[in-house]
Amino acid sequence: MDKNFDITVEQLKELIEGENPINLFDVREEYEYEDDNLGAILIPLGEIPDRLEEFEAIKGQDIYIHCRSGARSGKAKQFLISQGFENVHNVLGGIMAYRDME
Fold it and tell me: What is the pTM of this model?
């Protein structure tokens, strides 16, 4: 089974509202994060290769990545998988779809 499946914004909302903390990362730029965020850890897409050690500590755990629409987070997911990470999940539709749901 593929452990690197994408999730919907509805699934993300359930995870955020759940009792357990999740590893949620936002790969947008800082100005976008300042305008609106879901409380994720901000690591802009271009900085991920230089900040891999921040992911190393949670290697083996589920990692959820979102951006504005799902494109940048999809690239981040593929990069992390190429670096040996498993259980990496892209949030389909990103924060735009999340806000549309509310």
Answer: 0.95
